[in-house]
């Protein structure tokens, strides 16, 4: 696969979401290296460690959900130096991957074997809206916690705020910790809400609103969306090898 082929495929896969965020720095190349792409490595985060691991796996390209954001001071420059040194192309897709139909929230629903996704996560009127799904056979509070921990391979924090079985679930992966997002899930009659970060206020509000709250890590609630993306690339270019770059569980302890 050539880099130009990859660019065309991103337009095809993401469609309207690239136009939605084209001027906001939410996707794109951090560095263009090799023109021929035979091995794609993928991870949630662009860090010096993920670049080095991609190099050790023989990758021509690294795809991540996150860029090395400017507020993580100096890290982006360090990553670019490593990408140049190893001649690795890097591409990230943030908001487009959060809201495309195969994206991060959908992918986590799939991994916890939800029976029906009734609403996809989306971005509307400058607001993030969680995905909503239904278990046809309700889960207990503990069953859902254990299932999430099994899928993500890490400890999941959970707050039980009612005694109902869990049938309807809201998910917004990553930093879906705003109380307005939890309120949306509660108004949709969700029994549980799953995300990748928390604040004092998200925990307080979930308790007040009577909705069970589950919080994994930002990294490992979102990795499955990146995996969905690279598997779709491989459907179009089956000769391309894809490899997962395992990141450390630095946000919550490895299970």
UniProtKB/TrEMBL annotation:
Keyword line: Metal-binding
One Pfam match: DUF34_NIF3
Metal-binding found in the keyword field: yes
Cited PANTHER family: GTP CYCLOHYDROLASE 1 TYPE 2 HOMOLOG, NGG1 INTERACTING FACTOR 3
Similarity comment: family membership: Belongs to the GTP cyclohydrolase I type 2/NIF3 family.
Protein's name according to its UniProt entry: GTP cyclohydrolase 1 type 2 homolog
Organism per entry: Fictibacillus halophilus
């Amino acid at each position: 696969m050539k880099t130009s082929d990859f660019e065309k495929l991103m337009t095809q896969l993401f469609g309207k979401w690239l136009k939605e965020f084209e001027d906001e720095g939410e996707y794109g190349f951090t560095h263009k290296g090799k023109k021929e792409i035979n091995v794609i490595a993928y991870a949630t985060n662009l860090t010096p460690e993920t670049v080095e691991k991609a190099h050790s796996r023989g990758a021509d390209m690294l795809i991540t959900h996150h860029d090395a954001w400017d507020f993580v001071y100096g890290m982006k420059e360090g990553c670019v130096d490593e990408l140049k040194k190893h001649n690795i192309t890097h591409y990230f897709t943030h908001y487009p991957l959060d809201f495309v139909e195969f994206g991060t929230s959908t992918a986590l629903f799939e991994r916890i074997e939800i029976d029906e996704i009734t609403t996809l996560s989306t971005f509307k009127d400058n607001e993030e809206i969680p995905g909503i799904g239904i278990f046809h056979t309700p889960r207990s509070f503990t069953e859902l916690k254990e299932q999430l921990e099994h899928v993500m391979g890490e400890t999941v924090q959970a707050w039980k705020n009612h005694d109902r079985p869990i049938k309807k679930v809201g998910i917004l992966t990553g930093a879906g910790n705003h109380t307005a997002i939890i309120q949306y899930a509660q108004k949709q009659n969700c029994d549980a809400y799953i995300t990748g970060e928390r604040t004092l206020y998200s925990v307080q509000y979930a308790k007040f609103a009577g909705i069970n709250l589950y919080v994994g890590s930002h990294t490992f609630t979102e990795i499955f969306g990146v995996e969905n993306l690279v598997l779709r690339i491989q459907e179009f270019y089956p000769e391309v090898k894809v490899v997962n770059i395992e990141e450390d569980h630095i946000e919550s302890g490895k299970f």
